[in-house]
Structure formats: C-alpha cells, structure tokens
Amino acid sequence: MVKILMHGCNGHMGQVIARLAASDSETEIIAGVDVSDHITNPYPVFKSLEDYRQAWEKDESLKADVVIDFSSAAAADKLLDYCGAVQMPVVLCTTGLTPEQLERVKTVAGKTAVLKSANMSMGINLLLKLLKEAAGVLAPAGFDIEIVEKHHNQKVDAPSGTALALADSINEEFNNEYTYVYDRSTRRQKRDAKEIGLSAVRGGTIVGDHDVIFAGEDEVITFSHTAYSKNVFAKGAVQAAKFLKAKPAGLYDMSDVIEGA
C-alpha cells in the first residue's frame, strides 16, 4: 500500500486524484494539505505542511510514503523545503515554476526522490518516447515536422507546454539542430528543412489535443493524442506515486514510470 499526502487536496485536480486513489487497491490518501477548507474529505486536512509534520510526529500512521502536489507555483518553495528536510518523495505536478524554483527542484532531488514531468498523462509520455524513434527514421528521409495543439478558450499560454515537450523530444534526437517556428504570417519564404512548426488552436472546452505531423513526399504520418478529461493527468500522478515509493534520491520523470510499468 502506498500512503499518499495530497498537497493541494481541495483543488479540482486534488479531488480527482483522491477519487482515483480511493478506487485503487494499492494506494490510500492518508492526509491532505490545503489553505482552503471549503470541502469535507474522508481524510484529515491540514492548513500547512508544518501542521501536518507535527501531526505525524505524534501519530506515525499519518506519515505518507509520497507527496502528490497539484497546488500552485507559489506553494512550491515550502513544499520543496519540506520534502528535502524530511526526505519524502514528491510527485511535482504543479506547472509554471520559475527558473529559480527549477534549480531548487534539482537541489532537493539530491536529498530525496522527485518526479517532475511537463505532462502527467501516460499516453503523452509514451508518445514522447515513440516520437524519438519515428523522427530518427522519418526526418533523415525528408519528412517535415509540424505540431498542432488544441486547448480550451481559457488557456492563456501558447503553444502548450506539452507541445513544446513533444518538439523537444524530437529535437533531442538531432542534437537540437531544429528551430521552432510559431508564426508564419510575417514570413515570405519557403519552409526550412530544419524547423518544427508549432500551431495553437484555442476554443470551447477542449481539454487537450496534440497532433505531430510528419509530412513527406506523397505520404503523411500523424501521431495524435486526445485527452477527454483531466482524469488522464490524475491517473498518471497516481501511477507516478506508486513508482516513486522507496526510490532513491534523484530526479525522475514520467518516462521512468513508462519504462518501469
């Protein structure tokens, strides 16, 4: 049994993860941390990590094996300090971390196991792996590479972090020889062979849709991933928590979970 502390338990994703963990015979949410108390949970919820620490020091049954974090970048510093201090593994799902915070992630990974990924979906992370192999075959054969991502109309950043991760996974295969092109409206020139185009669509309630297009002479190969709900990210986080239990200190990502599955 993997005992999980849900950091940001009263947020939308925290609640989704709690429901999934409750239906998984291998996991249990034993406590939560959230500044908000507007939701009643079947496990104790603490206002701060320090309050939680004092509680499990008195009652060892409250001590978690792993923290899953779906909170905010503003809360990341205290979480990282806590996990480093008590050497508690953490699945870090919060996005929008500053460069300084990302450096802190690396520092804490020297003390305990930290899993951080641009996207927690198992499908996306398998796709990242498959794209390397596909690009290694298709790009030298003259196939152009384009990425089209679609998200809901409330998403403020473009392209998505996942689209960039997909592009990066391909680019790494070629020692980062490719440049990224985000907008061709001001360009009056032919497409360069060493570029990856990234296009963003925003509309409605699209959770997440990514197409990676390899366009060659007289044939097109498309890798597609569609998320129909945010459950896919929650499921990935729970799988990551199970993977991370008892792992040695180090920085992990979802590719490690895929390989260990």
TrEMBL record:
Catalyzed reactions per annotation: (S)-2,3,4,5-tetrahydrodipicolinate + NAD(+) + H2O = (2S,4S)-4-hydroxy-2,3,4,5-tetrahydrodipicolinate + NADH + H(+); (S)-2,3,4,5-tetrahydrodipicolinate + NADP(+) + H2O = (2S,4S)-4-hydroxy-2,3,4,5-tetrahydrodipicolinate + NADPH + H(+)
Pfam families: DapB_C, DapB_N
Segments forming domain Dihydrodipicolinate reductase N-terminal: 2-120
An example Gene Ontology CC term for this record: cytosol
Active-site residues (renumbered): H151 (proton donor/acceptor), K155 (proton donor)
Job description of the protein: Catalyzes the conversion of 4-hydroxy-tetrahydrodipicolinate (HTPA) to tetrahydrodipicolinate.
Xref: NCBIfam families: dapB
Name of the protein this chain belongs to: 4-hydroxy-tetrahydrodipicolinate reductase
